[in-house]
Write a structure and sequence with these properties.
By secondary structure, this protein is mostly helical. It has eight helices and no strands.
Length: 126
Amino acid sequence: MKMWVQAYTTALPTNMNKCLAVWSQMEGPIAGRYSHSQIMECQDAGIWPSWNTLKDEVDAFFSPQSEREWAWAWAQMQRTMQGAQPIENFLNSFTAMKQAGQVSDDYTFSILVKAVKPEIIKEVFI
């Protein structure tokens, strides 16, 4: 989402257009409710946040909320194993934990090598 926000820095003319473009892309139970409430609040008030304010909101919304959440993501990454789940599903959840924990790529790969079957590592990454 953060990359999408940066891509539209100059493409949309007004704060309202920018906010609607960003918020309309948010899906899921938490982000979807958040974006819907933001749209309704701005429409009712007739005031839309500036582009910088919107970027700050998105950064805050998609960043770990606390040290505890960050630590949880690290711990989950170290314990998780692929097992019988498809590699695509595993990599999606692993990537989400990596982002939540703000883990470096090198460290992530070293954990991933231990968590995924060696045959799949060779097939997918080498």
